[in-house]
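Side project, low priority. Logging it here so it doesn't get lost.
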Amino acid sequence: MLKVGFAGLGIMGQPMARRLLTAGFPLVVFDLSRARCEPLIACGASGAESLEELAAQSDVVITMVPDTPDVESALFGERGVWFGLKPGSIVIDMSTISPSATVRFAQRLAEKGCEMLDAPVSGGEPGAQAGTLAIMVGGKREVFDKCLPIFQAVGKTITYTGPQGNGQKTKLINQVVGSLNIFAMVEGLRLANAAGLDLEATLRSVSGGAASSWMLVNLGPKILEGNFAPGFSIKLHHKDLRLVHELAIELGGDYPGIELVHSLFSSAVEKGLGGQGNQGLINLWK
């Protein structure tokens, strides 16, 4: 069985790493916060003192960090993954980052005889805990096939999307559709409130029809409860929409929905709502 190194044990990384342990993978973990490693070490994982050490002890290294510069630093920074990799090692980046940067990182890793898959995920903290994440994977097909048992341990819908960078591009499409669904949910609930409707009854009714969505079913009740704790935060979603916006500019064309949600999430971050979950977008109007 492949020995897996996992770097980045935040809201998503911690439960994903735990799923790998449960599935029986030998696991080495690293995080800038040593405290995040301790629960996994207590369950049987090994701890590494650096990313270089993590890579040296692993067949496959998974990175799960916030943004493109974080991945670059983890891979190629001081005592980074690069320095511990052996020819034949595989890097799987499960963060959501720039597709073009992903291709550059993969090319650099290939110089050392190593492979890279970009495998961003969707499903938030609940999906990570339940092992039901959607995973969109770019890279060589034979490397994807070799790593499929790893993906099956943490996800349910696993899709090979093509060459390096395609996993990230697919994730950005996911974020476009998800963002517009969040906005639609917020706009609908605001209008229902203004119209004097019973919000619980309205949510129940709309969730059972053609207008239903994952966002409505899972985040709508949290809005009614006043629960804005993050399963996935506004600031991270805003980062994803920045990447979407950059891709849209690169490709050209007119994407008014992307412009709208990018602007709204930018405003939410500027107003100090970045630490809230996506459902906190409604607080722009409070």
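Brief comment: The chain has two domains: 4-163, 169-285.
Revisit when time allows.
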